[in-house]
Amino acid sequence: MVIRKALVTGGAGFIGSHIVDALLAQNIPVVIYDNFSTGRQEYLPKPAPGINVVRGDVLDLVRLGEAMAGCDFVFHWQANADVRGGKSNTRIDLEQNTLATWNVLEAMRSRICFRRQRPTRLRKPPFMARANSREKQ
Ligand SMILES: NC(=O)c1ccc[n+]([C@@H]2O[C@H](COP(=O)([O-])OP(=O)(O)OC[C@H]3O[C@@H](n4cnc5c(N)ncnc54)[C@H](O)[C@@H]3O)[C@@H](O)[C@H]2O)c1
């Protein structure tokens, strides 16, 4: 798989920053998209060509879409990782996990899936192929 340029949501967070490091180690240009609510400046790589840090909220669909320009791959690691806190404030998980993920998919749908390539016919999932071959035996 060839990745030309990747966007990492939550790229300043614990997991996302490791994904960023792994991509940079393969010389893949990266856009780090984060609102720094729990992300840390010290998790970021040193400024260098091929690294673009965008301070933005994933709920901001326009900014997110703009940040995705030129990317062909998205690693979505933004989240409200405070699972226990969701018990007292249930709206946070709805907004920061469910709606946030929907926003990322929407931005990808408009920016990556349909702008950069024509939709292709889905191939048969492998399990279907196996099921068919078993039927034939
Ligand atoms: N840390 C772990 O050990 C671990 C293990 C397994 C799975 N996970 C999962 O990985 C995901 C990330 O966890 P983490 O530990 O890296 O959390 P984290 O809090 O360190 O990272 C989340 C990042 O998302 C950013 N962010 C949050 N809301 C945002 C928003 N609305 N817009 C833009 N950026 C926003 C934060 O600033 C932060 O940088 C979570 O879904 C978590 O459940 C984490």
Structure, explained:
- The protein has 137 residues and is α/β, with parallel strands linked by helices.
- It has one domain (6-136): Rossmann fold, CATH 3.40.50.720.
- The protein has 4 helices and 4 strands, in the order βαββαβαα.
- Strands 3-2-1-4 form a 4-stranded parallel β-sheet, with helices on both faces.
- Helix 2 crosses helix 3 (90-116).
- Residues 119-137 have low confidence and may be disordered.
- The structure holds nicotinamide-adenine-dinucleotide.
Oligomer category = single chain
Shape: globular
Total helical elements: 4
- Characterize the biggest β-sheet: 4 strands, parallel
Low-pLDDT ranges? 119-137
What is the CATH topology classification name? Rossmann fold
Cα-atom radius of gyration: 18 Å
Work out the strand percent: 5-15%
Elements, N to C (H/E):
EHEEHEHH
How many discrete domains? 1
**Quick one: CATH superfamily?**
NAD(P)-binding Rossmann-like Domain
CATH class assignment: Alpha Beta
Which ligands, by name, code or SMILES, are bound? nicotinamide-adenine-dinucleotide
By CATH, the architecture is named: 3-Layer(aba) Sandwich
The end-to-end span amounts to: 34 Å
Number of strands: 4
Q: Spatial order of the strands in the main sheet?
A: 3-2-1-4
Mean pLDDT: 86
Helix content: 40-55%
Helix and strand composition category: alpha/beta
